[in-house]
Amino acid sequence: MSTTAAPAIECRCLHFGHNGFRLKDILLSVPLGKITTIVGPNGSGKSTLLRVLSGLASPYSGEVLVHGEDLRRFPRRKLARTLSMLPQSKLVPDNLTVRELVAYGRSPYQSPWSYRPYTADIDHINRALQLTGTTAHADRMFHTLSGGEQQKARIAMTLAQNTDILLLDEPTTFLDIAHQFEVMSMLKAINHETGITIVMVLHDLPQAVAFCDHMIALKRGAVVAAGPPRALLDTEFLHQVYDLNASVTYVENYPVIIPNLN
Ligand SMILES: Nc1ncnc2c1ncn2[C@@H]1O[C@H](COP(=O)(O)OP(=O)(O)OP(=O)(O)O)[C@@H](O)[C@H]1O
């Protein structure tokens, strides 16, 4: 008998708005223990949706269920121990070592009466450094790292939070092509090793196919497609979601998008 695991996150009839923008009637499901990507044109609402999924923004109707529980009923500490989020911003306070930055991920576990890390905190910090390959940089000042090393250290901070869901807003945006693949491969390996559910906003559709299990496409604040990335990415999808005339071909299982420039 086969059983399907309950989704990590579900949205039902979700509506949200700021200024003139609306997320409209969002119905979605994020599979447990898998990597899900949210894609779509600029301004389609990807970052806004990620903020709603994280509890940083509240929908004005509908619901977000995390492990089957209404997100609005999560006390702040429980939420911070369930779900971690890495926003797009590169901002990090000056004068922090990598280890100090990663230790911030332990904040939801620290007592308001003591700033001393417990042994468990140190174990989680070391594990996060190890999973992201940043142990060798632990005592360096964060601002002296390269862009790729900085992004791994920021991901280590979210992993130290020891949640079972990780939300990442464009984790490869500031990176060159080699570092993009390095970070995506690292996230895939972490997902495989720990079973953490990952949701990330991506612009790179071939990377979405190569590294993600599930894809949700947004257009003008609405979900217009969802499913396995390889099954979705074709000429019709590019036209429907991006108004782009292009074809998709595969070279050794890696998709290549060829725009029709005529
Ligand atoms: N805090 C905010 N207040 C008001 N409007 C906002 C806010 N954040 C985003 N918006 C608007 O909401 C719309 C969706 O923005 P969002 O950043 O979610 O899109 P996106 O799909 O992530 O875009 P991109 O791919 O360019 O990063 C945009 O029109 C944006 O200007």
TrEMBL record:
UniProt KW keywords: ATP-binding, Cell membrane, Ion transport, Iron, Iron transport, Membrane, Nucleotide-binding, Transport
Positions of the ABC transporter domain: 1-245
Biological process per Gene Ontology, one example term: iron ion transport
Main location: membrane
A GO MF label: ATP hydrolysis activity
Subcellular location(s) of the protein: Cell membrane
Membrane topology: Peripheral membrane protein
GO cellular component: plasma membrane
CDD domains, A to Z: ABC_Iron-Siderophores_B12_Hemin
InterPro entries found in the cross-reference section: AAA+_ATPase (IPR003593), ABC_transporter-like_ATP-bd (IPR003439), ABC_transporter-like_CS (IPR017871), P-loop_NTPase (IPR027417), Siderophore_ABC-ATPase (IPR051535)
PANTHER family recorded: IRON(3+)-HYDROXAMATE IMPORT ATP-BINDING PROTEIN FHUC
Name of protein: Ferric citrate ABC transporter ATP-binding protein FecE
Species this protein is from: Paenibacillus albidus
Gene that encodes the chain: fecE
